[in-house]
């Protein structure tokens, strides 16, 4: 069993109410090989929601309470992202998850780069909050850009 970001399976849980559905991910779910999560919804945020980005570091710094997640209106949403990451980890432990396919560049799920906190579409190196927590617990992180090479 693997864990996947729900938006990649076609669920309308993105910040704008849309999804990033991919046929290969939907097939894994239909075959019973994947469990779906949306950390931001698990953290208590609605859909749609105001876009959020990490300032002062990345997800690891947010977990250490050194960084913050803010929305485009400047409101601190950090607590929702931490709660969502913790709930996602609980699900991973319940299912014995060892691999997760997450949404690239997301402030929750990005595994190698995330938006830089300026809401200008610029990227910086680093992980989202959930990605950082899952990685810390030994879960292999993939995203929609590289999962195919691991699934063959």
TrEMBL record:
InterPro entries: 2-thiour_desulf. It comes from the Bacteria. This is Uncharacterized protein. It comes from Thermotalea metallivorans.
